[in-house]
Amino acid sequence: MHDLGIVIVTYNSQAEIGPCLDAALRIPQARIVVVDNASHDGTRTEVERRGVALLANAENRGFAAAVNQGVRAIGAEYVLLLNPDAMVEGGVEDLVRCCSRSNVGAAGGKLVDLEGRPQTGFCVRRFPSAVTLAFEALLLNRLWPRNPINRRYRCLDVDLSMPARVEQPAGAFFLFRHETWVRLGGFDEGFYPLWFEDVDFCKRARQAGLEIWYTPGAVAKHTGGHSVSGLPLEVRELYWYRSVIRYAAKHFPSWQGRLLSLAVILGSVIRMLYGMAAGRSRGVLTAYSRVIRLAGRCIWFGPRVTLSFHVP
């Protein structure tokens, strides 16, 4: 095994981090560091109980910043980014072997559910286009989930039993060279506190001429969404749309970013009206109004300018 480091970012992950670490500790010669973003449950106790290196942040620095912190601390040639709700079953050496090939910057493995079924639509995706994200914002994917735009984005046409060069493996089980991380300047900490930082990392890697591969011989059992599920709906929506708009500002032409922002506004109005009819909390309506303001700034000032805006 090459010089391998494993970085796990936690936030209120007490129920998940134990099995995750127990599986990771069985990987030969791998060094592990957990970066905890100010959990207020027993996450840190579970980590310390297993003797794993812990970086305990006093505040939630966001996922991207915590990843960068862990990569710097561990200093390994190859870094496996692992979610606390992912339990490695084997094949990490396949990821390392893939990434050791010339011009390969990163590789992702197969994520399976608790019954061992591949998490189709999640473990490999294509880069989102403005149309892809507009369909999501306008609720079209919920009304017509198997539409051609959504099928293509979620790679429902890809055979997950075969290795392939891909665009965006899931960040829950994702290995990259330290050299790639340095070359790209790390993960973009502007995607705060979460979402789209891994997509942006892969996008910039591809723009730099690096290949990214899906390697089905590497398998991890994954439950998914444990930290996010603990957030109130209004907080999740604000975080998600803020990251969507940032991604669009970085990677889409200005006119596409404006059209996407218009779709975000229309979708938010629909959600607000539905929320009012359903008697949703005032906080949900406030969150969508903040999303509308942010998208409106993107339309008025231009997508690139919105990168400097801070919406708490």
Short structural summary:
The protein has 312 residues and is an alpha/beta fold. The protein contains 13 helices and 11 strands. It has 2 domains: 4-139 and 149-227, Alpha-Beta Complex (Spore Coat Polysaccharide Biosynthesis Protein SpsA, Chain A); 231-308.
What does this structure look like?
- The chain folds into 2 domains: 4-139 and 149-227, Spore Coat Polysaccharide Biosynthesis Protein SpsA, Chain A, CATH 3.90.550; 231-308.
- It is 45% helix and 20% strand.
- The protein has 13 helices and 11 strands.
- α5 runs parallel beside α12 (254-277).
- The longest helix is centred in the C-terminal third of the chain and has 24 residues, at 254-277.
Summarize the SSE layout with pairings.
Elements: E1 4-10, H1 14-24, E2 31-37, H2 43-49, E3 53-57, H3 63-74, E4 78-82, E5 86-90, H4 92-99, E6 104-112, E7 124-125, H5 130-137, H6 140-143, H7 148-153, E8 164-165, E9 168-169, E10 173-177, H8 178-184, H9 197-207, E11 211-222, H10 226-229, H11 233-251, H12 254-277, H13 282-301
Parallel strand pairs: 1-2, 1-4, 2-3, 6-11
Antiparallel strand pairs: 4-10, 5-11, 6-10, 7-9, 8-11
- Spell out the helices and strands N to C: EHEHEHEEHEEHHHEEEHHEHHHH
User: What would you report as the Rg, rounded to the nearest angstrom?
Assistant: 19 Å
Quaternary structure of the protein: single chain
Helix/strand class: alpha/beta
CATH class of the largest domain: Alpha Beta
| Total count of domains | 2
Straight-line distance between termini: 43 Å
Sketch the major β-sheet. Answer: 9 strands, mixed
The fraction of residues in strands falls at 15-25%
Overall form: globular
The poorly predicted ranges are none
What is the β-strand count?
Answer: 11
Q: Would you give the CATH topology of the largest domain?
A: Spore Coat Polysaccharide Biosynthesis Protein SpsA, Chain A
Question: What count of helical segments does DSSP give?
Answer: 13
CATH architecture of the largest domain: Alpha-Beta Complex
